[in-house]
């Protein structure tokens, strides 16, 4: 067994980090290590400054005029293009609007409409649940459609593809385990069966390079409040490949998706471009915070981001496994870095209480039922020293068994 | 012809206004009269303060913990109950979430599900267009459904009701003319035919007393960024009568509508209450601004609000008609105050240019195609003196014909 990295080794890693300076743009609490950026990203100075301008100048002073003068009306497509750069999508294919759940509904309907005669949606049993719930919703309104789930009877998505499958809804990075799918390879297999694919990028957008266009993806959805740091509940995004635009329909056909929204026509005529996936008026204050949050990404090289992400997660796995042997942890995340997103999960029998004890010590991760300790590593604002500190605290919490204290056992309403 | 009110008369009206003090809570620009609060309500000190706390303390400092500690997760139902008080809805029947368009989709599906065997949606040709577009979207996904429109061939809603009608979608106040429907009477007629009703309250919530429960309404939707002053694009609300809860389904079945969202179950099980109409994660910053904006409503008596609203719109109609005779204006709003919301519309052949000229002089209303000058009167922050000033400026713009200047002819992308 080789020695674990020393504090000098870790200091050298941080000194060599090309993204280290970006940390100063974030508002982090001293003494805390925030490993929950895969649930809610940290606030940046830029996001808060943008929000203040939006509230004080655009809303309070300019009022209704800001729809034009401050560009509010075009924020969904402007921000869509900026996120597009981070997920490998050329301009005009991404819109920021509504929620991930609602965008899944739109994308599934759009895909099904492009595959008439096919009546099956394939999804993952281990998916983030809302994907499954929305697929159920789509099915409920389309007689004859049904859902096949990967993971039942050890099936893989590849095993479920046949001429009945219209669309496959698949997570790029699994929300629990952090396992990363090969987007290009799976998209090829899905296309070979004649189906279309909807990629859920909630746990990969801003966490690693994504190549939607190069992978020939059809549709994608994702959220902007995790690694993109857009603020709590910031609007989600939807990608539709340009080859599908102009042919697609989706039933949430509100006025913001109309080709001429301010002509106030009686009949719906969908915009020929990506705006067709818009529906109603968007929460501008939340969009403006997101716009500020995206500024920092102009300085980020996605390959450097990926290198740092893997360096952080490799280090965490190495330190935790090296320091916590025999303390009840089981790694749930692929050890092979190419198959890993930017998070690390360990199972522990008392995961809920352990996480509460960690949080009490300032190491903020989260718990996922029934037994997962989940740690997200946002490369923009975390250092290797943070990782080492978190691993030390995890060891201490497990060795002292302080998680057994009664105060850590009571579950909050939302976890 | 009686004399028009003098400036002394108008000063007396303001001195007697029980809501006059509330104006100080709003951030208004000196020298402007803002008559577009029926499109985007003005910002209040309370809304901006709430937004700052949300950004600085809840997001930046407390991060993920704020879902519990700041009550973020319950904001949709907390704010729903607070809006409920303003629209005559007892607790547990209103949720603030998503957009009006999306909530129309949910409510129509829910109503149709409660009326099996019926296959017609009735709506108004003169409806705000997104209502019609969403009804089209519902129909597109439900084979056999069709849409009947009031206003074609001089039909009234009453004429269109029969045993095929599942649901009627109707605006409480017309977005162009400001005409107010009798909610209780029309709901009775719709129920007598066996159909359900979805009321669109976009132009009545916060503008006048609404009595959903007392009218026996089934569903309602509305927005929070007009008279409720929640901020640009603030999330919308949905009302479902308690007698329908537990029996309703809607296809936007995301995880926020699940009975146990954090159990991460594979199958959807809808919440038995109003939360079932939630779908995905909501834009918290926008919700927090709305929460601040609602504080002022605790001090507002809705009957006093209605009295002031009618006093303002009566005065505007009287002054404009008295001062602008022969200048090309035609009143589009009911002269009978009981049939009027809180806005006044005049048609003018060159309405677009006239409105631009008014805006250049600091009287901010809006234009609605093809020929409508629309003026909204938010009773919380407007005075009778504002109304008199606006009427004077309208007279001046029309008499001088300054609207003919070239700079007023070019239409902005969004108006």
Automatic annotation (TrEMBL), chains A, B:
<comment type="subunit">
    <text>Homodimer.</text>
</comment>
<dbReference type="InterPro" id="IPR010111">
    <property type="entry name" value="Kynureninase"/>
</dbReference>
<dbReference type="GO" id="GO:0009435">
    <property type="term" value="P:NAD+ biosynthetic process"/>
</dbReference>
<feature type="binding site">
    <location>
        <position position="101"/>
    </location>
    <ligand>
        <name>pyridoxal 5'-phosphate</name>
    </ligand>
</feature>
<feature type="binding site">
    <location>
        <position position="203"/>
    </location>
    <ligand>
        <name>pyridoxal 5'-phosphate</name>
    </ligand>
</feature>
<dbReference type="Pfam" id="PF22580">
    <property type="entry name" value="KYNU_C"/>
</dbReference>
<feature type="modified residue" description="N6-(pyridoxal phosphate)lysine">
    <location>
        <position position="226"/>
    </location>
</feature>
<protein>
    <recommendedName>
        <fullName>Kynureninase</fullName>
        <ecNumber>3.7.1.3</ecNumber>
    </recommendedName>
</protein>
<dbReference type="InterPro" id="IPR015421">
    <property type="entry name" value="PyrdxlP-dep_Trfase_major"/>
</dbReference>
<comment type="similarity">
    <text>Belongs to the kynureninase family.</text>
</comment>
<feature type="binding site">
    <location>
        <begin position="128"/>
        <end position="131"/>
    </location>
    <ligand>
        <name>pyridoxal 5'-phosphate</name>
    </ligand>
</feature>
<dbReference type="GO" id="GO:0043420">
    <property type="term" value="P:anthranilate metabolic process"/>
</dbReference>
<feature type="binding site">
    <location>
        <position position="225"/>
    </location>
    <ligand>
        <name>pyridoxal 5'-phosphate</name>
    </ligand>
</feature>
<feature type="binding site">
    <location>
        <position position="281"/>
    </location>
    <ligand>
        <name>pyridoxal 5'-phosphate</name>
    </ligand>
</feature>
<feature type="binding site">
    <location>
        <position position="200"/>
    </location>
    <ligand>
        <name>pyridoxal 5'-phosphate</name>
    </ligand>
</feature>
<comment type="pathway">
    <text>Cofactor biosynthesis; NAD(+) biosynthesis; quinolinate from L-kynurenine: step 2/3.</text>
</comment>
<keyword id="KW-0663">Pyridoxal phosphate</keyword>
<keyword id="KW-0662">Pyridine nucleotide biosynthesis</keyword>
<keyword id="KW-0378">Hydrolase</keyword>
<dbReference type="GO" id="GO:0019805">
    <property type="term" value="P:quinolinate biosynthetic process"/>
</dbReference>
<dbReference type="GO" id="GO:0019441">
    <property type="term" value="P:L-tryptophan catabolic process to kynurenine"/>
</dbReference>
<dbReference type="GO" id="GO:0030170">
    <property type="term" value="F:pyridoxal phosphate binding"/>
</dbReference>
<dbReference type="GO" id="GO:0005737">
    <property type="term" value="C:cytoplasm"/>
</dbReference>
<dbReference type="InterPro" id="IPR015424">
    <property type="entry name" value="PyrdxlP-dep_Trfase"/>
</dbReference>
<dbReference type="InterPro" id="IPR015422">
    <property type="entry name" value="PyrdxlP-dep_Trfase_small"/>
</dbReference>
<comment type="function">
    <text>Catalyzes the cleavage of L-kynurenine (L-Kyn) and L-3-hydroxykynurenine (L-3OHKyn) into anthranilic acid (AA) and 3-hydroxyanthranilic acid (3-OHAA), respectively.</text>
</comment>
<dbReference type="GO" id="GO:0097053">
    <property type="term" value="P:L-kynurenine catabolic process"/>
</dbReference>
<comment type="pathway">
    <text>Amino-acid degradation; L-kynurenine degradation; L-alanine and anthranilate from L-kynurenine: step 1/1.</text>
</comment>
<feature type="binding site">
    <location>
        <position position="100"/>
    </location>
    <ligand>
        <name>pyridoxal 5'-phosphate</name>
    </ligand>
</feature>
<dbReference type="GO" id="GO:0030429">
    <property type="term" value="F:kynureninase activity"/>
</dbReference>
<feature type="binding site">
    <location>
        <position position="255"/>
    </location>
    <ligand>
        <name>pyridoxal 5'-phosphate</name>
    </ligand>
</feature>
């Amino acid at each position: 067994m080789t020695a674990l990295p020393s504090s000098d080794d870790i200091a050298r890693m941080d000194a060599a980090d090309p993204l280290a300076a970006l940390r100063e743009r974030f508002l982090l609490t001293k003494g805390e290590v925030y490993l929950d950026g895969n649930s809610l990203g940290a606030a940046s100075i830029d996001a808060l400054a943008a929000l203040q301008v939006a509230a004080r100048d655009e809303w309070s002073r300019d009022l209704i005029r800001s729809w034009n003068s401050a560009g509010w009306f075009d924020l969904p497509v402007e921000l869509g293009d900026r996120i597009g750069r981070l997920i490998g999508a050329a301009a005009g294919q991404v819109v920021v609007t509504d929620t991930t759940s609602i965008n899944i509904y739109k994308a599934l309907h759009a895909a099904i409409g492009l595959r008439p005669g096919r009546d099956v949606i394939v999804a993952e049993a281990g998916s983030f649940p809302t994907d499954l719930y929305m697929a159920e919703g789509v099915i409920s309104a389309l007689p004859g459609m049904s859902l096949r789930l990967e993971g039942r009877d050890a099936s893989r998505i590849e095993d479920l593809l046949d001429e009945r499958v219209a669309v496959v809804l698949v997570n790029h990075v699994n929300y629990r385990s952090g396992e990363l799918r090969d987007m290009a390879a799976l998209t090829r297999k899905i296309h070979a069966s004649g189906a279309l694919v909807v990629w859920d990028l909630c746990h990969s957008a801003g966490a690693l390079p994504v190549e939607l266009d190069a992978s020939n993806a059809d549709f994608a959805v994702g959220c902007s409040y995790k690694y993109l740091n857009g603020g709590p509940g910031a609007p989600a995004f939807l990608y539709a490949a340009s080859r599908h635009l102009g042919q697609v329909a989706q039933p949430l056909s509100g006025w913001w998706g109309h080709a001429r929204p301010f002509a106030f026509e009686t009949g719906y005529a969908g915009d020929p471009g990506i705006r067709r996936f818009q529906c109603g008026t968007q929460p501008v204050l939340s969009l403006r915070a997101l716009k500020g949050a995206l500024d920092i990404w102009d300085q980020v090289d996605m390959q450097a981001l990926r290198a740092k992400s893997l360096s952080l997660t490799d280090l965490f796995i190495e330190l935790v496994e090296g320091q916590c042997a025999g303390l009840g942890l089981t790694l749930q995340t692929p050890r092979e870095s190419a198959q890993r997103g930017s998070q690390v999960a360990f199972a522990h029998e008392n995961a809920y209480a352990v996480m509460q004890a960690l949080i009490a010590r300032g190491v903020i991760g989260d718990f996922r039922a029934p037994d997962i300790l989940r740690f997200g590593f946002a490369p923009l604002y975390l250092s290797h020293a943070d990782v080492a500190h978190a691993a030390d605290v995890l060891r201490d919490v497990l060795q002292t068994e302080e998680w057994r204290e009664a105060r850590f056992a009571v579950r909050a309403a939302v976890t």
